[in-house]
Design brief:
By secondary structure, the protein is mainly α. Helix content is about 45%, strand content about 10%. The chain is built from 20 helices and twelve strands. Helix 7 links the parallel strand 9 and strand 10. It starts with 8 loop residues before the first strand and ends in a 10-residue tail after the last helix. The structure holds one RNA strand of 77 nucleotides.
Length: about 500
RNA sequence: GGCGCCAUGGUGUAACUGGUUAACACGCCGCCCUCUCAAGGCGGAGAGUUCGGGUUCGAUCCCCGAUGGCGCUACCA
């Protein structure tokens, strides 16, 4: 396959009838990667010729999705709705050269014929209308005419960069509509008119377009244009292996942003859906999973694209997310976290330096950016809540509050407060009271963080500082209804005191 | 229904032009750490490559068929 062009021109051509969905995002990513890898041009084109279903809000949604995953385009966005003359001229060329003809059948007629008979395909009844007669009918304005492509006999084929040679018998193709009777082009016409006009060299798109491709190949030859290289990318399916849809939950890319997914994690995950670095040319990357944007650009080629559909696996996405969050520097994470804080109307009360330190401190346990506005709050502010489950698990014993107060008192008067000294004092108290250190430790953790899961307790103490530790240990008893609530429900015995 | 495409553990992928104990990752299970786990460390189960025929000394890999899945089948894109 000619896979190493000097400066390819590719495009992503979404239709603004919905938000940028996962499949579209992956197609956009592959196009972008391909263009960047070969130093080519990535064009964004909005296919909004379906006025009924297209909307400006959707256009904005798509652009937002593109920006979120970090895909920038070199030309466009072009809007097909603003390029109508090109399509009309192209249709005219096809008519003039005898490759297309006017059709006077109305949509209603077509539908009823289809419903009553076995005429699954258009019967071509207008194809052989007398030229002059046809022209007259059209010009008298009474019968609006659509323009159809006259599919020739024979077969149509192309060498797909992913699937190899694909061939269709022309008999399987109907004389499809190029221009609707209102003069608006259909997809079949506008794609090829634009792809030719924009001098595209490679068409990377979803495999759902394979069946449309022969119709386009036919137009290229009718127009005397050079055929670009087609590379169809397998589709992304839901967990039940049916086409990914709203039924499977989030389908819009922005929904993943809203779930606290880091864009690079999403991009990395997406890149590996239907593509792999390929061990032949890059044996050293055979077992790799995480790739930066630069890595992806360097490694991406068409022959790494697989032919079979891929299933979208949320667990794997979640794993990538934890990997990226963990690997990020806190100052790179901060702006992303701040967005979450704003959304949650949470205002951290500590200094920026402390905040950055806190991010580094807790990020190994983060699964989503949401955690920073949720279960990690106690590290950024004194305004946090006690997780009822954590209270039930570790703070249920009625003797705990006074023990924690005792501990607080000892910390308060201690000459110094370090990770080591905090541990020393706590263990001494446990021994003295003849209770398990673990009970005190776990109880303290909940008192300090509100959570059952957090970093090592003494590290948390050192991080929080003596004053906060003392204050939080003391306040376990008061002002936390959850606690008393949980105290009543004393089924959990696992960590209670002896 | 017709046409097209695809087919490696639950999932994503790997396995040079046919020769491997079929690899890696996610997930799952277990153990360790013991101060928690959604963190970390260690280990394990899980496919003989959808099935059936060929070709071959030898097929995940080539051919044929079946089955299954997906796609297209609009004056949608």
């Amino acid at each position: 396959m000619p896979d190493s062009p000097s400066s390819p021109r590719v495009r992503f051509a979404p239709s603004p009838t919905g938000y940028l969905h996962v499949g579209g995002a992956r197609t956009a990513l592959f196009n972008w990667l391909f263009a960047r890898h070969f130093g080519g041009t990535f064009i964004l084109r909005i296919e909004d010729t379906d006025f009924e279903r297209s909307s400006e809000a959707m256009v904005e949604g798509i652009l937002e999705g593109m920006r979120w995953i970090g895909l920038d385009w070199d030309e466009g966005p072009f809007f097909q709705s603003q390029r109508l003359p090109l399509y009309q001229a192209t249709a005219q060329k096809l008519i003039d050269s005898g490759h297309a003809y006017y059709c006077f059948c109305t949509k209603g007629e077509l539908e009823s014929r289809r419903a009553e008979g076995t005429a699954a395909m258009y019967d071509r009844r207008c194809r052989n209308l007398d030229r002059a007669e046809s022209e007259k009918r059209r010009l008298d304005g009474k019968s609006p005419a659509a323009v159809r492509f006259a599919v020739p006999d024979g077969a149509t084929s192309w060498d797909d960069a992913v699937f190899g040679r694909v061939e269709f018998a022309n008999a399987e193709l109907e004389d499809f509509v190029l221009l609707r009777s209102d003069g608006i082009p259909t997809y079949h016409l506008s794609v090829v008119a634009d792809d030719i006009d924009m001098r595209l060299t490679h068409i990377l798109r979803g495999a759902d377009h394979i069946s449309n491709t022969p119709k386009q190949v036919l137009q290229y030859s009718a127009l005397g244009a050079e055929l670009p290289i087609f590379a169809h990318v397998p589709l992304i399916l839901g967990p039940d292996k049916t086409r990914l849809s709203k039924r499977h939950g989030a389908t819009s890319v922005i929904a993943y942003k809203d779930m606290g997914i880091v864009p690079e994690a999403f991009r990395n995950f997406l890149a590996l859906l239907g593509w792999s670095p390929g061990s032949k040319q890059n044996p050293q990357h055979k077992d790799r999973e995480t790739f930066s944007s630069e890595d992806l650009i360097q490694l991406f080629t068409l022959d790494g694209i697989s032919k079979s559909n891929a299933v979208f696996d949320n667990d794997k996405l979640a794993w990538f997310n934890t990997e990226y969050i963990r690997a990020y520097d806190s100052n790179k994470l901060l702006p992303l976290i701040q967005i979450e804080w704003q959304a949650a109307e949470f205002v951290p009360t500590r200094t920026e330096e402390e905040i950055l330190a806190a991010i580094d401190f807790v990020k190994p346990r983060a699964r989503s950016l949401k955690d920073f506005a949720g279960s990690f709050r106690a590290h950024f502010s004194d305004d946090f809540e006690y997780d009822p489950a954590a209270v039930t698990k570790f703070l249920a014993d009625p003797s705990l509050p006074s023990l924690l107060q005792e501990l607080a008192a000892r910390y308060d008067v201690a000459p110094d407060f370090t990770e080591a000294s905090a541990e020393e004092l706590l263990r001494a108290l446990a021994t003295e009271k003849n209770i398990k250190a673990g009970a005190l430790i776990n109880g303290s953790r909940v008192a300090l963080t509100g959570q059952a899961v957090a970093p090592s307790l003494f590290a948390v103490m050192a991080f929080l500082g003596k004053d906060r530790v003392v204050q939080r240990l003391n306040s376990v008893d008061k002002g936390h209804p959850e606690r008393s609530l949980a105290g009543n429900a004393s089924q959990t015995q696992s960590n209670s005191l002896p």
